[in-house]
Amino acid sequence: MSETFDCRSIAEKFKGWAQGELTRLPQIPTLATVLFKPRAQEASIQYRDLVLKDAARLGFNAKKFEPASESELWSLIGKLNLNSSISGILIFYPIHGSMPDEDLMDLVSPLKDVEGLHSLNLGYLIKYKKFLDAGQMTKCVVPATAKAVVKTLQEHGVPIAGSFVSIVNNSMRVGKPLGLMLENLGATVVKCHDKTQKTDLEECVRRADILVTAVPNPDFSIDPRWIKKGCSVVDVSYQGNIDVVNAREFSKIITSPDNRIGQVTRALLFVNLIYCAKALNNSASATPILKTLAP
Question: Is residue 282 part of a domain?
Fold first, then answer.
């Protein structure tokens, strides 16, 4: 029988760190949650509500915004960027608007980008840059879901350097940044997506020392018989891409539906919020790039 990733305990560890850092800040950070009302998905609403509950429990301030039109959404982001009382901005994608989500991500100030999806923050990830300043006082922010996968693997002692990793997702929020993070840590990474042929998908899954799947489609599933003996399996999807019961026969360690990695993602959002708050506090006296980015 394979082990189970204890995502709950990992989440509590990072929430505890974030709470401890609150006492070292001049003021309590405020998170602005932005849900585009016209096309709000049930999963996004549930996720937003969980984030708000976490904020209240941990002692952070949080405000919810529900713009009713695209013009209102764009205007709101600009106002939040300039609002000195807002430390971080969290937008619930996908928006499915006239502006591509990738462009909308760049409207958020990089210093308030708690999801690390602005092109500048993703660029730092490509360069494996960890700090914004030479004094290493201001941490770079990276996408929370991808970071949650990496931290979960590391906390359970799963070897990353030298491992062959197959990621079944190529999104801006999960697959792309996760691939970069794991490559930075010495893994060989291949990403599969909706255009990947089934035979190629099977081959990639069979080769994987680490398998990460995050397909937001309830009809998608990975045959557990493809899983390599001793593989570490992380199912990020809410619906579940893998039959965990049957996959346990092959995997060494695996996520469980009753102990989801999403709780680690939410914990790391507040870690990122701490980083954003510190970046804003340090921007006046830090490097020229911080001065340029300060809202």
Answer: yes
